[in-house]
Design goal:
Layout: E1 5-9, H1 14-25, E2 29-34, H2 37-50, E3 57-61, H3 67-80, E4 86-89, E5 100-101, E6 104-105, H4 106-128, E7 132-137, H5 160-182, E8 187-193, H6 207-216, H7 223-235, E9 246-248, E10 251-252, H8 262-275
Parallel strand pairs: 1-2, 1-4, 2-3, 4-7, 7-8, 8-9
Antiparallel strand pairs: 5-6, 9-10
Length: 283
């Protein structure tokens, strides 16, 4: 990974930070995206401490719930880096109550539209840097979910975990169609399930959610274990020519049949394009 440039969102804690540390130790140049200046600075110091000789660590600040902020982030990355070999869409969230941003339900905006738009805006740089890889953090939580096309903004009903599951299904559908569109370009797109990981995820959604995560913690794996498949997807020659796949523990797994429905894949892509109307670069 010497001199490879990697951009990771959601890298200030959890599996994103663990992956950044591991990749930096392998000699990769890391650029991490965070929302809190303090937490991003702490994460950057940890990654620098783990970095191999000559590896660099840079930070970018962005609230990925805002499409305008995603555009600014992409512009800053493009201005700074003449090459980008790996993009990791790892940032994600779950919200106990329905909220909106840019008129879009917040979970959907952060977990699905942000990686969709960021990948789109950086795609020409990734193509120029081929062979390159796009990796998106999905989840086993997509099992049993469906895309609510008749209530995409969750206006009629909202359940925090249910909405999270829908966005994780959207991540897999996005990866499937992105891989199809990238066929022959030298850029691959894959996604993975990290497992139940002991992090601060979902700790800000009230007492009940916090209690639930505390109960589950003894069953959870470490962030380092959860990051192993991410690091493998970013580095391994075994997956250099694999695209459009869903992985768990470094093995390709079949996702929910709903994640393989070609009509749903195409319909979601078209709607996501409209929801990211500010983006003008076609894929």
């Amino acid at each position: 990974m010497n001199d490879k440039q990697i951009l990771i969102t959601g890298a200030t804690n959890g599996i994103g930070l663990a992956a950044a540390e591991a990749l930096a130790a392998l000699g990769a140049n890391l650029a991490i995206v965070g929302r809190s200046k303090t937490r991003t600075g702490i994460a950057s110091a940890r990654i620098r401490a783990a970095a191999g000789r000559g590896a660099t660590v840079a930070t970018f600040m962005a609230d990925l719930s805002s499409q305008a902020a995603v555009h600014r982030l992409a512009a800053e990355v493009l201005a700074r880096y003449p090459k980008l070999e790996v993009l990791v869409n790892n940032a994600g969230a779950m919200y106990g109550t329905r909220q909106t941003t840019d008129g879009i339900e917040l979970t959907w905006a952060v977990n699905h539209l942000a990686p969709f738009l960021l990948s789109k805006l950086l795609l020409h740089r990734l193509k120029e840097s081929a062979s390159a890889r796009i990796i998106t953090t999905a989840s086993q939580a997509h099992q049993g979910a469906h895309i609510p096309f008749d209530d995409l903004n969750a206006e009629r009903s909202y359940r925090g975990f249910g909405r999270y599951c829908e966005t994780k299904l959207a991540n897999i559908l996005f990866t499937t169609e992105l891989a199809r569109r990238l066929d022959g370009t030298g850029v691959t797109a894959n996604c993975f399930h990290p497992g139940l990981v002991a992090t601060g995820f979902n700790r800000n959604n009230g007492l009940l959610m916090n209690l639930g995560m505390t109960i589950l913690r003894p069953l959870a794996r470490s962030p380092e274990k959860g990051a192993e498949t991410l690091v493998w997807l970013a580095t391994s020659p075994d997956v250099a020519n694999v695209s459009g796949a869903y992985f768990f523990d470094q093995e390709q797994r079949p996702p929910n049949p709903a994640a393989q429905d070609t009509e749903t894949v195409g319909r979601l892509w078209e709607i996501s394009e409209r929801q990211c109307a500010a983006s003008r670069r076609p894929l």
